[in-house]
Amino acid sequence: MQGFTGFLTSFFSFSVVASVSYGQVQTDGWLQKLAAGNQNSIFQEVIQHPDTYRLQVIYTQIDRDKNNTPSFRNYYFHVDSTEYFNPASTVKLPLALLSLEKLNRMQNPNVTKFTAMQFDSAYSKQTKEWRDETSETGYPSIAHFIKKAFLVSDNDAYSRMYEFVGQGEINRSLHEKGYLDTRITHRFVRMTADENRHTNPVRFIQPDGKLIYAQPAAFNTVPFDFRRVARLGKGYMTGNDSLVHEPFNFTERNKLPLESLQQILQSVLFPESVSPKQRFSLTNDDYRFLYQYLSQYPGETNYPKYDAKQYYDSYVKFFFMDSLHHQMPEGVRVFNKVGWAYGFLTDVSYVVDFTNKVEYMLTATVYVNSDGILNDDKYDFDSIGRPFMYQLGQTIYQYELKRKRKYVPNLSAFKLSYETQKKDGRPTIKDVDN
Dihedral sign, CA of 113, 115, 121, 126? Predict the structure, then answer.
């Protein structure tokens, strides 16, 4: 692994990660007691009915020793690795890491995350993408896809990274790293299972259009294990707005258990805290790039230039997304990835408060679909889901502000320089497909 050698390795040379028992519900009484202290009615409604809301929470305390080396302790609330939840856009996190890893494995000095690339079409439903006017160069690139996927959770960016890495390599790589119960089977566009097994030809080009490297179309021949059936709800709407009176079948959809999601983010932020096989082969520059765009706000970014009013600071920061105030607390940055679809809201976060010298991880998923109908766009995101996630986030954040630490953490590794959006006359981007 090429990690934060020199600059960060001394910080991450030791950790204690709580062992996980798969296949059984895990709830720590201490976390349950902490949650009981928040009497917000929406929060308590979800906390007291975790089965109804398919709630799972992992709260990770981080403590440093005298050498600033972090150790980790996980607390669980209703966590069950076998209970399906739809990961939605959280799968964009491993896709970004696998895309960077694949570039590094190519060992072509002319092909980097910033190199212009183009996508052709070679199979049913595939689409071309030769230009991207939201980027500074006017071309797509892995770096630009990662920005869009992290800043506003752009769907096309995910689909293109899926096409670059390939379905077979995505799943093989995650399983080799020990994330065994994961699967990523599809783009975020309407395609059949067969069409998702086929991925586009891709080429990297110089600014003048000259070819650097061409990757042929690919087809994944490896079968998936779909023996564990996952069906939810009492009905669903079809593409032509017909109601089917039977549960929606998620059996062949993307799957990313909460514990795996938490470990993937931890492997990026604290690579030395996980086993070597769980890490992604990233360079120092990759880490810094990821840290920036996991925590930068859309309104700070120049390319793409997002509308800061629509894509406000806490837009993809569920644990700090207050319906009344969209600004983050002074001195706080959240390094995270969220997802929302089919009534599920999920967030995997590392929270840093530079002012109060606080750090912790919080990962949660909740299902809010009171009518039991999938695909009808009538979910309880605004009335229950987001208010719950905000209350959960504030419960942990307020506790962390008061939690005693033997050693004050040195958080300088995560203190980054962010962009300032230029007022250059370019129109801002609104209404992204996410």
Answer: positive
- Domain 9-414 sits in CATH at 3.40.710.10
Q: Could you give the dihedral angle defined by the CA atoms of residues 277, 283, 287 and 293, in that order, rounded to the nearest 10 degrees? A: -120
Give the pLDDT of residue 19: 36
Cα–Cα distance for residue pair 365/347, rounded to 1 Å: 7
User: SS3 of 140, please?
Assistant: coil
At residue 70, the 3 state secondary structure works out as strand
Residue segments in the chain with a per-residue pLDDT below the cut of 70: 1-23
Report helix, strand or coil for 352.
strand
DSSP one-letter code for 278? G
- pLDDT of 6-65, one tens digit each? 334 333 333 333 333 456 899 999 999 999 999 999 999 999 999 999 999 999 999 999
Listing DSSP states for 185-218 in one string gives ---SSS--HHHHHEE--EEEE-TTS-EEEEE--E
3-state secondary structure labels for all residues of 353-410: ECCCCEEEEEEEEEECCCCCEECCCCCCHHHHHHHHHHHHHHHHHHHHHHCCCCCCCC
pLDDT score recorded for residue 24: 84
Q: Which amino acid is at 309?
A: K
Encode pLDDT of 201-231 as tens digits: 999 999 999 999 999 999 999 999 999 999 9
- Neighbour-count burial of 406, counting CB atoms closer than 10 A to its CB (0-12 exposed, 13-18 middle, 19+ buried): exposed
- Domain residue limits, the chain: 9-414
Using alpha carbons, list the distances in angstroms from residue 65 to 44, 158, 276, 289.
Answer: 36, 38, 22, 27
Positive/negative CA dihedral, 382, 328, 308, 115: negative
How much is the pLDDT for 324?
81
Predicted TM-score (pTM) of this structure: 0.94
DSSP letter, residue 302: S
